[in-house]
# Entry
Amino acid sequence: MSQIEIRDVAIEYKKPKSEESFVAIQGVSLSIEKGSFVTIVGSSGCGKSTLLLALAGLIECSRGSIRVEGKDVTGPGKDRAMVFQDASLLPWRSVHGNVRFALELQRWKRDDIDERAARFVRMVGLGNFADYHPHQLSGGMRQRVNIARALAVDPQVLLMDEPFGALDAQTREVMGDELLRIWERDKKTAVFVTHSIDEAIFLGDRVVVMGRNPGHIRDVVEIDLPRPRTAAMLDSPSFIEYRRKLRDYISADMQALHMVEDIA
Ligand SMILES: Nc1ncnc2c1ncn2[C@@H]1O[C@H](COP(=O)(O)OP(=O)(O)O)[C@@H](O)[C@H]1O
Ligand SMILES: [Mg+2]
# Structure
C-alpha cells in the first residue's frame, strides 16, 4: 500500500449566492509512495489547489476518499504540513520566533524548541538572519522561513502550493535546488504544485498532469532522470522530451478552453 491513496475523489463547491454547486475535480485517483516527490501541473483553474487542500484536510471530498498511512483524512493533522504561495509569517516575530511558533503550537517540549527552530533556520540558509523580522527579508527569504516552519514540525508529508510562485526566476532556481537538497536528506513525501513545467520536471519523480472541466488527472509522467538533479540536465535530450510532452498537454487544454469560450 502507498503512503497516500487518493481514490476516485470529486470535490464540489457551492456557487456563491446560489443553490447550485460547481464540480472542481472529479474521478481523481492517485497513489503516492512514501518519500517520493510528486509534482502537479495543469492550466489555471483545473483544481490543483483544490486537490492539495483536500490532502491537507482543509476541504472535504464530496465523493471518494483520501487516505494517509491507511487512515482517512478528516481534517488537518500533524502528519501533513502545507506551504502556500505567500508566506504568512507573524510580523512581530523574528525568523527564529516564527519557526518556534509552529513548534509551540504543536506543543513540542520547551527544551527542544529553541534548538530545533535554530536548526531548521540554518537548514534553509538563514542562520545569519535568525533575529531579523519578516519586513527585513526578501520574498525568497520569507519563503525559506515558511518552508523551515513546515519542516520543523517533522511532517510525514509536505504539501506545497506554488511555493515559489511569487519569486523571481533566479531565486526560484536556488530555492528548488535547496528544497531538493533538504528533501534528499529528510526523505519526506513531497506533493508540489507549480505552473512551471521545467520546475515540475526538475523536482519530480513523477509529474501529474491535470486537465479541466471538471478537473481530472490526464496523465502521470515518470521522470527518469538521475538524482541529484543538476542544472545541466535542463538541456539534456530526455528533459527536452519531457518538456515537449507536458507542454503539448497544457496547450491542448488551453485551446479547448478557448473553444468553450468562443461557443459561450
Ligand atoms: N472556495 C471556492 N468556491 C467556489 N469555487 C471555487 C473555490 N475554490 C476554487 N473554486 C473553483 O474551482 C476550480 C479549481 O480551482 P483551483 O483548485 O484553485 O484551481 P488551480 O489551483 O488549478 O488554479 C476553479 O474553477 C475555481 O474557480
Ligand atoms: Mg492554485
Notes: Helices lie at 48-56, 95-105, 110-123, 139-152, 169-186, 197-203, 237-263. The chain has a mean pLDDT of 93. Residues 89-154 form one domain. The chain is about 40% helix and 25% strand.
